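Forwarding the complex inputs:
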Amino acid sequence: MKALTAPEGSPIIHAERLSKTFATRGHAVEAVRGIDLTVAEGEIFGLLGPNGAGKTTTMRMLCTLLLLTDGRASVVGFDLEKEQAAIRRNIGYVGQKGGLEAVATGRENLMLQAQLYRMTHAAARRTVDALIERLSLSEFADRTAETYSGGQRRIFDLAAGVVNAPRLLFLDEPTTGLDPQSRARVWAEVSALNAAGTSIFLTTHYLEEADALCDRVAIIDHGQIVALGSPVELKRQVAGDRLTFGYENAGNVAAASAVLTGESTVLETRVDGDTLLVYVTNGDEALPLLMRRLGAAHTAPKTVQLARPTLDDVFLKVTGRTLQAESTAE
Amino acid sequence: MRDAYLIAKNELIVTVRNPYWLFHGLVQPIIYLVLFAPLLNGVAGVPGFPAHNAIQFFAPGLLIMNVLFSAGFEGFTLQDKAESGFLERLRVTPISRLALALGFILQSSATLLFQSLVLIVASLAFGLRLDPPGAVILLLLIVLIGVLMASLSFTLGLMTREGGILAGITNTFILPLLILSGVMLPIGFGPPIIQTISRLDPFFYAVNAARNLINGALSSPSIPVAFAVFAVLAAIALTLFIRSMREAVA
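Prediction (whole assembly, two chains):
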């Protein structure tokens, strides 16, 4: 099998005004409303958002499973509407449910997948053997898929997604429902694939996953991108670090607030009973400086906490809701 | 074509390992063969009964009945595959939608042939006498009808996405088609209105042709009529199925 290659240096995904409207019982539901995004070759790009935000719909359009209602896109250098066959040869996809045939063995599942990428039986055999070896799956490969644990199944799903050595791998909520150990294993495999040159496009509603794995994250809500950047950038630009000063005497809090207001690193102060919340651009540097100022003004606190912002703070800032609440409300 | 074969092979491996569907379809016809066919012996001598013994009358129809109950319920297996993500996984590979559809059809045809052979052997044990060339032609007709029923069921399965709805629709249609086909009792026993309606049931022609084929009456016009009717219907249903595979519903 010879993979077609796109011109050097062009983005692995470039999408403009991507839109999808579903007709449900007579009324139209706009699942995705005009998404623009560009993913560079070699990136791990994540779509983060609550359930129903349009993450999966966006991914399904980009990997040729759903037709676009509007917009255009190129994926691995090919036009999404006109060159689906070329795209399919060059991408891998692991859906939320994986799709292993339960009464077939892991090896049989992988063999079928490899042969559908037009490999000869012998070539498929070599590829599948190598993959099973590399992912340490030999122990389970000849058992039927229905006997696998959630974690084992997920690694086989992943293996099925990469039998064609895709340039771009789509992962739809790769660790939803997995135990922490299996999740760490999936993260490690995804990182290894990326280190070997595979670009990754994933969806997730786990903040930690977006944070730990992704080079860049698009936060998506109601079918639109509401924030886009590296996890570090996003957290810095939207929230800032949070310092929490605790006082024995609530009377000192207002005075302390007055001292800190106007400091160049301070973005915002908020008085909350006997604590003072201070949002700063860079907590590590700001903390010693602000402590000196407070000490000089005789308003030193009794306790101090430094908290990094999470992507949930970012989500809260741009949508007014927290992602955690959205996910548990599901 | 290699892709269709790969899909069919995979599906057959799966069917053999989990032969529920293989036998689920057979249970009903076997019960009819064991419990119902002997009852017909009582009416075998009645004027208007087209054969001199019950098994010669009932067995050919039974084979047609099996197509309805086997291929006619294939949609459920496809719904499972859509639900498990299996179909979606295949749809991202370069396999054509045509090959995917034909793979499933091929698998259902192979299953149907196996079941038909089992039923023929069982009927022989009950005293059926068959004309070998006629029986071979009958198997061809059965596969053709199987393509029709499986295509319809697969298409409905993809459209409804829900086992309950699919079962409801399927059962609603299969029962009247079955009774009007004259599998159970000769349509000639009924009032003129039933006889007229039965002419609208394609399975009426299938059962007629099946009886003539088993008896070796190969020059009967009922045979080309049945092939013509089902070739047209199967072509339409297969086209529908391939189209529903193409559309991004799975």
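Chain B has one domain: 2-246.
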